[in-house]
Amino acid sequence: MKRYDRRRRGVFIPPLLLFLLVLTAAAAAGGFLLRDGAAGKSDMLSAIPAPGGDRPGQQAVTASGIPCTLTRLGEEAVYTGDLLLVNNQILYHFPEEQELVSIYDGKTGSYYVRDTEVYLAPAALEALNQMLDDFRAQGGSKTVNVVAGYRTEAFQQHLFDQSVERNGQAHAEEFVARPGGSEHHTGLVVDFSIFYEDGTSAEYQGMGEYAWINTHCQDYGWVVRYEKDKQSLTGIGDEPWHFRYVGIPHAAVMAEKGLCLEEYTDYLKEFPFDGQHLAVDCGGEQYEIWYCAGTAAYLPDSGEYTVSGNNVDGIVVTCKVG
Ligand SMILES: [Zn+2]
Q1: Contacting residues for 283 by C-beta, under 8 A, at least 6 apart
Q2: What's the pLDDT at 56?
Q3: Residues of the chain whose pLDDT is less than 70?
Q4: Tell me: the pLDDT tens digits for 82-127?
Q5: Identified catalytic residue from 126, 153, 239, 263
Q6: Are β-strands 296-300 and 119-120 bridged in parallel, bridged antiparallel, or unpaired?
Q7: Is the CATH number of domain 101-245 3.30.1380.10?
Q8: CB burial readout 202-232, b (16+ within 10 A) else e
Q9: d(CA 88, ligand 1 centre) in Å
Q10: Left, alpha or beta for 30 (phi > 0: left; psi -120 to 50: alpha)?
Q11: Could you tell me the distance, in angstroms and rounded to a whole number, from the CA of residue 269 to the centre of ligand 1?
Q12: pTM (two decimals)
């Protein structure tokens, strides 16, 4: 169904002139990198300009024919977007303003929410509605209860302190994210519980009828963020109730390749603008994805695209093709 392959590198205008310029600049800088072309074929080599050698306004066309312009974005671009990696080592950069909506106000009738004070980023809520509407449509019950969404830094501090008080410092450090280290700060995360009609509740395990959600969530841009076999990378054990929105098509690629967000963030760096791009065929749409180190990124001159920082050192551009 889904197909992922690497695209050959973008073609520059004028390609020969740019290549010579890069070659000259790289030689002046004491060397340059040469990278193998598509799928290891040696007939295609492309020069990767040294970081910092970019010139805003510079234009280029990608392999799919998308005209782009190198655009200098503010530093906040690295710390904004659906692909932010947040963990106890890479803390969330709290913005001055964050767009959030109450799930209670915006949800459909297919599920419950704990109360009126559970918030999400608008795109995440829309994707949540679609996923749980489809879950219901294919026979799932209306028992999914969203018990957590966005968390403030102060609330995470409260959770951490509470855990220290109840179970000690060591336990808290192992099981509770430190303030700033919780993905919930992004507004792109929900925790599910089960709420039965008779008023009782149960922990959400993603099993039985709910397995549909955990196996289809990537079609809606969500991933099961913490899985047991990735604990050494994420620092968090199995949490089948914790879903992270990364958007389509990233969730599909992560699921297909079995990558957690720590791994996926690194994987995307294999697709710099001046190298091969990641081509994704997903849900009837085609996407071209590339990574730009730093705060300058090649952005499409037109068309539908999204930009997200990785919360570390660069920006990912995801563009619909056609
Ligand atoms: Zn959670």
Answers
A1: 219, 248, 249, 252
A2: 82
A3: 1-54
A4: 999 999 999 999 999 999 999 999 999 999 999 999 999 999 999 9
A5: 239
A6: unpaired
A7: yes
A8: eebebeeebebbbeebbbbbbbbbbbeebee
A9: 14
A10: left
A11: 27
A12: 0.82
Q: What's the one-letter identity of residue 93?
A: H
Q: How far is the CA of 239 from the centre of ligand 1 (A)?
A: 8
pLDDT for residue 54: 61
pLDDT value at position 55?
78
Residue 86 alpha carbon to ligand 1 centre in Å: 12
Q: Coil, strand, or helix at residue 136?
A: helix
> In Å, what is the CA distance from 307 to each residue of 31, 79, 112, 155, 189?
31, 11, 31, 29, 19
User: Which amino acid is located at 285 in the chain?
Assistant: E
Token output for 13: 């205008």
DSSP state of 218: G
Is 239 annotated as catalytic?
Answer: yes
d(CA 296, CA 264): 21
Pairing outcome for strands 239-245 and 278-282 = unpaired
- Pair type for strands 189-195 and 144-148: antiparallel
Strand partners, 317: 290, 307
Span(s) in the chain for CATH 3.30.1380.10: 101-245
* pLDDT of the residue at 5: 40
